[in-house]
Fold these 2 entries.
Entry 1:
Amino acid sequence: MHAQPHIEMRGIHKVYADGTVALRGVDFRLQPGEIVGLLGENGAGKTTLMKILSGLLRPTRGELVVGGRPLQFRNPDEALRAGIGMVHQTFALVPPYTALQNIVLGQEGAALLGPLQVQAARQRVSQLLTQTGLAVPLDVPVESLPIGVQQRVEILKVLYRGTSVLILDEPTSALTPTEVGDLFDFLRRLRAGGTTIVFITHKLREVLDISNRIVVLRAGQVAGEVPAEAASAEDLAELMVGRKIVPRVSRAARPAGAPVLTVRGLHVLNDQGGVAVRGLDFEVRAGEVFGIAGVEGNGQSELVQALTGLRPPAGGELVLNGTRVQHLHPLALYRRGVCHIPEDKARFGLALNFDLAENAILSRQAEPVFLRAMGRLNWTRILAYARQLVERFNVIAPGIRAVVRSLSGGNQQRLLVGRELSKQPVLVVAMHPTRGLDIASTVYIRELLVQMRDQGKGVLLVSADLDEILELSDRIAVMYEGAFIGTGTAEEFSREEIGLMMGGVLPQGRR
Amino acid sequence: MNGRFRIPRPLVESLATIGVGLVAGGLLMLVFGNNPLRAYRALFVGAFGSLEDVLETLAFATPLMLTGLTFAVGVRAGLFNIGAEGQMYLGAVGATFIAGTFALPPLVHVAAATLVAMLCGALWALPPALLKIWRGVHEVISTIMCNWIAFHLSTYLVIYFLTGAGRADSTRPALPTARYPVLFAESTLTAVVFVAVAFCLAVYLYLWGTRAGYELRLAGENPEAARYAGVHAGRAMLLSFGIGGLAAGLAGASQIIGRPPAWSLYATLGNVTTLGFDGIGVALVGRSHPLGGILAAFLFGALAHGGRFMEYHAGVLSELVRAINGLIVLTLAVPELWAITRRRLGR
């Protein structure tokens, strides 16, 4: 292993090509043999900062000093040569290769056409296994290994390259509690052996448990830095969520009506077959906004997809307006009054290379209003409808035959939200409806959602933006690891309490 | 649709790239000591110089606009359907069988031969479609395999069942009742060109004017949004393969009952081979659009027919002519290749 350098990042700025400012002047340092917890909400800049340290991204401004020498990594290889390696959230393993092959991949130590030196490699890997005390079956294809073991292979892959600084991006997000315990034991052993570890997470308990020092990022800046022994979950939650300045949307108190949507015992699996939503029970009433807060990746996407027919639930039932939903197909749900503002407009809600008119009927193309005999599209009506959407929802566009790609994000979302809300829904399911939008569009879309509530529709709002949840919701639930960790009226919770629950910690005095 | 007609941007781009291709081809000719201006003049005059030449160019273009359509409808549904070649063989076999075997009244005979050819093409598109929908088999693999199977199957059918008495080099010719009328004496262009253009037009209206066409295009443009819109992905793919098969089958028919002087299928399949693959280029140049494909096919026809005169009048080696044609096609294909790649790599 390498000699341990001090690492310092100074005044790091990062502006992405699309203009997103991810980091605004971050100072970050690492001392040999410590575990640093890097804490923050989605989009706070944690991953960006570490991708810069590991050579995957280049800072727009700022410098990196390793062992007293200013350095510029042009690629991850150079960072690895300086002893810095990162394990990403999504693994980069070759599924049919064995653990050994994956670990050695790219470091075979043989000429391009020379014989593989597998035996020598096997020796070095076994040595590494004894050193670190990790148990990994070396000759089994990694695709047949559980996620926790695959992660060990990922970590070994980085350590095999002689890494002395190990960066882990949300390493516990896919692990079972036992696996988390094992991982932590192992990280402590690594630290004892002199390895420096950066642990990116949004989970308060974990970061308190494992770190020596905790750095909190918020909106691309360091919001605070505390030694772990001096930190409390409450302090960290407050540092993490902070406050943002967006004009508030006013919302008059209003009694809620009968339930529009009732969910009972809902279980949903994620793409990997793991349980993403574990037995949820809740209802959304007419004339209320039911807000679901939480850090992304705690099952919200799967929940929304199950409610909108995009993902079959593994168990449980949905009751819409008093009748049980048998046929969970998107069109069947739309017909029964569900409309869906999806989490990623470019991925689900719009076809960017289609024009505004074609996007105006996306998901409405089966409605008789827009059709003539023999399944022909009624372009007269479609164009009129598109024009009406553009006018009513103030979409700024060169014309209704312009491709949607040419619109700004805010205008794309106005078109989408306008289309969905003009469906005369009884239930509005909205996920991250204002993510990445300009302030004017953000406020406008929030007002529209409140309007829907005032008109007596049920609104289910899922958002990682705590301000949005607090501002719009009548009732709030905080989702953590597939279940609601707390539910209550908006007045019952303070933002700090919600911040704690988002990190998986139940505040004092709550069940 | 604000009243006035605007030239579509893809057309402008394509016209601009033709210039690039011509210049590149010209440079190539300079290297080989030919006079590019004379050669291009020969090409142009050869392709469009007289009515007969224009008709000949159109005759070359007819099957290409259809096999181009096969690929284009695939791209619109997010598929890389390169099975036009094999589907076209089967179409040619079907047309030959009906046209050469049965005695039917004039109009009925032409219609029957055409329809059976189209159905044969569609039928041959079915296995790759179902493999894709049920088992996720990539259509590039399955259509290439089906092309080979179609080649050998067609050769077998031709030699053992369709050849005339006493000869093995080609099938029994189509009976006169089954032939499309030749439009002008001495030309090889027949009325089948109208059927081809009408079919392209119909597919255009279908894709942009019906719900099913809209869903097909949505599934190709953004599969996740299609799911969100409740579109059945498998149905969209089946539809795309089906339309493509019909087009390829018609292309096959056009070379048997719509192309003098042979009015038959050679046992080597020599009078139809590569028309299906050329369709890929046509579709790329035509920007995966049924109407763009008509224009592109016309250009391909002009290069094919006019290219012969480059050798004759300007002394350009025939190999070089093909290289120059290839260059022009390549530059023209760049914009659409770029668009497809961008669509594939995500938004």
Entry 2:
Amino acid sequence: MNILVLMRMVPDVVEELEIAPDGKGLDTEYLRMIVNESDDHALEQALILKERRGGKVTVLALDAPDVDDVLFSAVAKGADRVLKIEGGDGGLTTRAAAGVFAKVIDSQSDLKSVDVVLTGVQAIDDLDALVAPILSRRLGLPYLGIVTKVTLDESGKAVTAVREFSAGVRGEFEVPLPAVLGIQAAEKPPRYVPVAKVRAAMKSHKIESVGAPTTADAGLPLIEVMRMRKPEVSSHAQMLDGAPEEISKKLAGIFTERGLL
Amino acid sequence: MTDAQATTCPSSHREMTLETLADFPEGREVLTCIQCGMCAGTCPYGDVMDYPPRRIISMMRAGMLEKVFSSDSLLACVACYACMAKCPRGIQLTEVLLPLVKEQVFARLPELPAELHKALGNTLRYGNPMAESAKKRAAWVKTADVPIRILPEDPRPVDVLWFVECQNSYYPRGQDISRATARLFHRLGIDFAILGNEEKCAGECARLLGETGLFDTLMDYNMAVFQNYQFNRIVTSGAHAYDAFKYQYSAVGFKYPMEHTTPFFARYLEPLRPLLTRKLNYKVTYHDSCCLGRHNGFYEEPRDLLRAIPGVKLVEMPHNRISAICCGGGGGGMWLDTYYKAKGYERLSERRVKEAVTTGADVLAVSCPYEVSRFEDALKVMGHDKKMVVRDVTELLAEAMEV
Amino acid sequence: MSGKIWVVAEQWRGKLSEITFESLALGREVADGLGVPLQAVLLGHNVKNLAGALGLADSVIYIDHPALAEPDAGSQADALAQLVRQHKPHALLVPLTNVSLGIGTLLAEQVGAPVVNFCKDLRVVDGRLEADCVLYGGKIEATVTAKGDPAVIGLSPGSRPPDKGRSEKKPPVEEVAVTLPDQPVIKLKAYLEPDAGDVDITQQDVLVAVGRGIQSKENLALAEELAGALGGALCGSRPVIDQGWLPLSRQVGKSGVSVKPRLYLALGISGAPEHIEGMKDAPLIVAVNSDPQAPIFNVAHYGIVADAMDMIPTLKETVQALRG
């Protein structure tokens, strides 16, 4: 099975996010980037599919700080080929990023001819689009999102994909290939790869470079961020202080007042 | 009074592999095993350890190490040094053999237990297992009541570089210990500073678990940071960090005089004693940490400190000094409680706390950062938290000092 | 400014979702602010009966097609694209829920429209729509405008109380035809129901919710005892269910259930939007989290900065003592 995984870096929210002086974006000075969590799951799902039915896993990522670590980790985990799209603008919105992915895939016959494109269903910075649906329309492929399980059918021409709804209900779908799937979670959590293996991958493998498209999508950006801010924290909750015993008594009082005890 | 010198240890066991044991003195030592089984008998998880050192060595001799590597049983090894301390041949089991074997086990595990997975990933990315930003590592300093110099902000030469370590930087109880330690340094007139946000985990537990790549990455990083500053000696609150610096970091040129806070303060007992003016009236039992105790022999230093506190009555647990029962936090154990519980293992911290409580002591005194949270958790779970509290030795000393 | 405001209704398995009514409430405000009509768009197969509940809108556009019988983002977007090209609305409010995810972006790409996701509020300022959007897991808010129309607004749950979107009025319903293949390309084979025989957390008066801060499966037993002491049940956020510590049926949030117990006690839950969405309407929310900056404190009525494991035993004892 020939699988293409699209991966992006997003701001790491473990670090304190600051607003840029113009008040319209994030301050990039202390920003650390981390791989989009569901893209990591997409890679894991791809590797699981390869382990079960053979084939090839190619990872395509946009250039960003620390993306090399992610790509070498992918190699160490079992990806066959890793490519980085270089030379374009940094700080692309999701819509623009998806457009870049689409153009690059369209221009490379080996990427265009894959059986399935896997990418994370969503990212924390998807303000102006989701990647998978854009790819679906641009490449003319069917799209299924919020996927948590993918199994290649016997025929090899379709996959059975499980997609989440709500209230714990899921749906089992037959998806003809090729297709674009938005992965919510892989069947297993993304595997750990020992640091020594990643270091070895850095020595044994090269990240292939692909030039970013020279023509940007027309009309982008289609939205304008007028202002960005950090929300007031704890503006709603009344904070209770004291030792656990004191707090417990206060809470018990509140519960009694509300007729709960 | 002379400062302890860091033991320069041969870096040879970094190049040594299980195949080339015979080419190195520590490796040849392994091959002298007489299969007595003391290691298996003394292992706190001996009843579930499918491959204690004795069996590993016999499998090695039989050319069957692959079987050992494909078992996950060695995840139960908490690197407590009990086997190594009791080995009649003096083989460096915990220090040398087990990490080599665990490295192979680690590489073959199909899946890591989730908590451990996260702890290792966090340590690589953030320099601490807690997934806290490196930029918050020195945030606790604002809450200290004595001045604490942070070298990146004020890089003048300093006498003591105090390597605080992760638990004591980020966890509330660890920060209590750090504040106490800072007060002691200050009252003793010691010129000290910390690396602040440039400090990262020393990596010893990753190494003991078999994640040698992570250990090497941290060691390279920390060494590069040390070389940016001028200081006479390093004092660390981390018992595992102590081991890393003493036995491993010489491989990258570490030559600094280095001590753990407990034996360090014990050497300052004469100037310290007159400062301990508040009577504490505690019955205290001291838990020997594996690194400081069995591994390095610092049994009397913490006891000397505790005896110097007015009103403290010291009582011993049945298993003390060389036979102390590990808290279960080493070698990755800190992040494997869920895994052990799923397998039905007793928590070592609970086993130890059961014993501590029998002494009738009010205070369980410790000197390794893992022990505070592990024993406090165990006391709570077993319902003894009203009877006994856990305090680091430095906390008790600081408490005995009137401001 | 001409052009209507459209609310894309969400119906699934014969029922209209709560977000449909939240969306109607918000859409009504915005349409009135612009002085334009509000229309609800209902897609499905044999669900015309649901149109009667959408009376807060001025009218309903109903599209019936077998391909729309079950959620299929591709078919739904195709249908909407045909409608959009014909009717040229000014903006569409499309739910950003598991049932409807993807429709907005597919549609926008087809008709060349802007998308504004994670929207939690919309208002009219100087004749333009301004959206407040929540980004980076709740850590940042952005005010955003769309350049060009129609603006496809990806609406997050919780923008308005659903009751504000309900109306007794029966709206006029216009049935419109679209051209779609008989069946979606992606076929639903079966629904997989969650494990039966378990507690229905949507029916509980008291829920004790555990998150990552509970740290380990053993701690769950203590939390369960607390839930029992309070006369309620245990539920959890996604990470706890992912770990296998609680079954899927106990999951609160985007991929789980929405709950509205009289008391929601959140222990060690940070408050990511995916979770908040499932419990924000509870009349009493108490949150315990060791991080004072945790977003859960934005929705909680009472907050406690503490380690959840420090609070659980003490609270349990206190409650048990009161109950006698």
